[in-house]
Design a protein that fits this description.
The protein has about 70 residues and is of the alpha+beta class. Helix content is about 20%, strand content about 20%. The chain has helices at about 10-15, 25-30, and strands at about 55-60, 60-65, 70. It is globular, with a radius of gyration of 15 Å. The longest helix is centred in the first third of the chain and has 7 residues, at about 10-15. It contains two helices and three strands.
Protein backbone atom coordinates (compact mmCIF):
# COMPACT_ATOMS: atom_id res chain seq x y z
CA UNK A 1 0.00 0.00 0.00
CA UNK A 2 1.27 3.43 -0.89
CA UNK A 3 0.80 5.96 1.91
CA UNK A 4 -1.76 8.63 1.14
CA UNK A 5 -2.91 11.32 3.51
CA UNK A 6 -4.50 14.74 3.81
CA UNK A 7 -3.15 17.73 5.68
CA UNK A 8 -5.10 20.27 7.70
CA UNK A 9 -8.75 19.91 8.62
CA UNK A 10 -9.46 17.30 5.94
CA UNK A 11 -6.83 15.04 7.51
CA UNK A 12 -8.48 15.49 10.90
CA UNK A 13 -11.98 14.91 9.52
CA UNK A 14 -11.17 11.78 7.50
CA UNK A 15 -8.54 10.17 9.75
CA UNK A 16 -6.23 9.96 6.71
CA UNK A 17 -3.37 12.10 8.02
CA UNK A 18 0.39 12.04 8.48
CA UNK A 19 -0.02 9.80 11.53
CA UNK A 20 -2.56 7.37 10.05
CA UNK A 21 -1.99 6.73 6.34
CA UNK A 22 -4.74 5.46 4.04
CA UNK A 23 -4.85 3.58 0.77
CA UNK A 24 -5.73 5.53 -2.37
CA UNK A 25 -9.13 3.83 -2.41
CA UNK A 26 -9.78 4.99 1.18
CA UNK A 27 -8.74 8.55 0.30
CA UNK A 28 -10.97 8.58 -2.78
CA UNK A 29 -13.92 7.28 -0.73
CA UNK A 30 -13.31 9.83 2.06
CA UNK A 31 -13.09 12.81 -0.30
CA UNK A 32 -14.48 11.99 -3.76
CA UNK A 33 -14.20 15.62 -4.92
CA UNK A 34 -10.52 15.96 -3.92
CA UNK A 35 -7.81 16.84 -6.45
CA UNK A 36 -4.13 15.86 -6.28
CA UNK A 37 -2.00 19.02 -6.43
CA UNK A 38 1.37 17.66 -5.31
CA UNK A 39 3.19 14.34 -5.54
CA UNK A 40 6.39 13.65 -3.63
CA UNK A 41 8.93 10.96 -4.49
CA UNK A 42 10.99 9.74 -1.53
CA UNK A 43 13.35 6.83 -0.92
CA UNK A 44 14.12 6.90 2.77
CA UNK A 45 16.53 8.66 5.11
CA UNK A 46 19.84 6.86 4.61
CA UNK A 47 21.33 8.78 1.64
CA UNK A 48 20.20 11.78 -0.38
CA UNK A 49 18.45 10.94 -3.65
CA UNK A 50 20.09 12.23 -6.81
CA UNK A 51 18.36 11.14 -9.98
CA UNK A 52 15.24 11.48 -12.05
CA UNK A 53 11.68 10.22 -12.10
CA UNK A 54 9.93 9.32 -15.33
CA UNK A 55 6.74 7.54 -16.36
CA UNK A 56 4.92 8.43 -13.13
CA UNK A 57 1.53 6.66 -13.07
CA UNK A 58 -1.40 8.15 -11.16
CA UNK A 59 -4.61 6.18 -11.60
CA UNK A 60 -4.69 5.42 -15.34
CA UNK A 61 -2.56 8.38 -16.47
CA UNK A 62 1.19 8.16 -17.14
CA UNK A 63 3.18 11.41 -16.87
CA UNK A 64 6.35 11.53 -18.96
CA UNK A 65 8.91 14.17 -17.95
CA UNK A 66 11.07 15.46 -20.79
CA UNK A 67 13.35 18.51 -21.28
CA UNK A 68 10.60 20.17 -23.36
CA UNK A 69 7.89 19.64 -20.73
CA UNK A 70 5.53 17.03 -19.30
CA UNK A 71 3.20 14.93 -21.43
CA UNK A 72 0.48 12.58 -20.26
CA UNK A 73 -1.13 9.54 -21.78
Amino acid sequence: MQPWYFTGQTGNDTGCNQVTYCSLAEVEAAAPEATVHTVEITKGRDYAFTGAVDALVLNATTYDFEPFGVSSS
